[in-house]
Amino acid sequence: MRTHLLLPLLLMMPIQAEALELTGRYGYAGEWAVTARLTEAEAAGSRRKRDFAGPVILKHLALCGPGEVAEKSGSLNLRRDGQRYAAMLTIGAESCAVTGTLAEDGVAFADCGRAGKIPLRLWLK
């Protein structure tokens, strides 16, 4: 097969989107373990900024009181620029906007509207 015939075939092959695996802690005492596996979404604008989206799971690490749940699930939309990120965390009817650094010691405060500003640490798995 000639090289000029191979190029169109290569261009038609789907490009594998990058997955971003995150872990972290959420809450005033870090009482929620966070795990998320996000896939790369089509990003508009800068080549350095990359958009990711996917499901997120929060598991309660402490004893649950009456009426509390041990696990919550939702979605995480994240725009990454190197180690910096801007994200929207949605759990049920609650949405929290946050900007921070993907680092185990990087504490950011998620603005969750009526619930206030809640500490969130996210880092790469």
Provide the structure class: mainly beta
Question: Biggest β-sheet: count, sense, barrel?
Answer: 8 strands, antiparallel
Quaternary structure state of the chains depicted: single chain
As residue ranges, the low-confidence spans are none
CATH structural fold name: Lipocalin
**Strand percentage, roughly?**
over 45%
Can you walk through the features of this model?
The protein is mostly beta strands. 8% of the residues lie in helices and 55% in strands. It contains one helix and eight strands; from the N terminus they run H-E-E-E-E-E-E-E-E. It has one helix spanning 3-12, and strands spanning 19-26, 32-41, 49-60, 71-81, 84-91, 94-101, 108-111, 117-124. It has an eight-stranded antiparallel beta sheet with strand order 6-5-4-3-2-1-8-7, with no helix packed on it. The model has no long low-confidence stretch (mean pLDDT 87).
What are the SSEs and their pairings?
Elements: H1 3-12, E1 19-26, E2 32-41, E3 49-60, E4 71-81, E5 84-91, E6 94-101, E7 108-111, E8 117-124
Antiparallel strand pairs: 1-2, 1-8, 2-3, 3-4, 4-5, 5-6, 7-8
